[in-house]
Amino acid sequence: MIDPQSLDQVLAEERARERKEKEQIQIPSDYKVYIALVNREDLLQRALIHSSDVMENLTVIDNSKSGISFNPGCKVFRPPMPIQFVHSINYALLETRRQSAHIAMWLHCDAWTPQGAYLRLIEEARQFTAEGRKWGLLFTNYDALLAMNTALIDDVGLWDQNLPWYHSDEDYYRRVTLAGYEAIDTHIDVFHDYSQTIKSDLDVNFMNDITHPLHGQYYRLKWGGPPHEEQFTKPFNRDFAK
User: Fold this and answer.
1) What confidence tens digit (pLDDT) does each residue in 194-240 have?
2) 123: CATH
3) How many Cβ atoms sit within 10 Å of the Cβ of residue 44?
4) Where is 59: in which H helix or E strand?
5) pLDDT digits over 145-188, tens only?
6) Is residue 129 part of a domain?
7) 21 occurs within a structural domain
8) What span, in angstroms and rounded, lies between the C-alpha atoms of 63 and 81?
9) What letter does residue 113 receive in the DSSP assignment?
10) What's the CA gap between 76 and 62, in Å, rounded?
């Protein structure tokens, strides 16, 4: 007669062996997804509900004042102190590469995706990579959901930290195309309630009203004109010592 305890031990050892084998053959994911929270947890919850396809590879960057009050069901990175948008997206790029992935995906916290949108974007990035295309950015509804190739870190650099919010996107996307990378509109549907982070916080909105003209001036000095009217092909029209 078989001892039930011995049988349980054998079965437990067998399950442990199977788990170990699966872990050994598991292929690391080639993509990572990031959402940054500043305020409006309700919008984050909405974004997460529509992110079920990628939850295993999704990280919420928690820049809120008091921390997320619910379990988002994914990884959470809470910096020692809240960081600006530009630092958050630079973190996303660098952390994606650190984890040996090459597709860094960024979803605005006030955006949400229809079923299958993430997977379509990932598949397009993989297809372009397999074809040997020098893709840098994949857009959906502008950059409501954005895919970035981590090769940009070496060839373009990180987002300009002198532009912590507005104009940072126009600056980086210009640098990407000047470096010879493709910026491709995928026409994948993604929904976006624009600027909800700023509109939902009187202090943030106040500071944006003050700094937005300053960042616009910086952009014009850097590129010789406002967005879409740039005159320079090099920042500040000069070469920098490496």
Assistant:
1) 777 777 788 888 888 899 999 999 999 999 999 999 999 999 999 86
2) 3.90.550.10
3) 22
4) strand 58-62
5) 999 999 999 999 999 999 998 999 999 999 999 999 999 999 99
6) yes
7) no
8) 7
9) -
10) 7
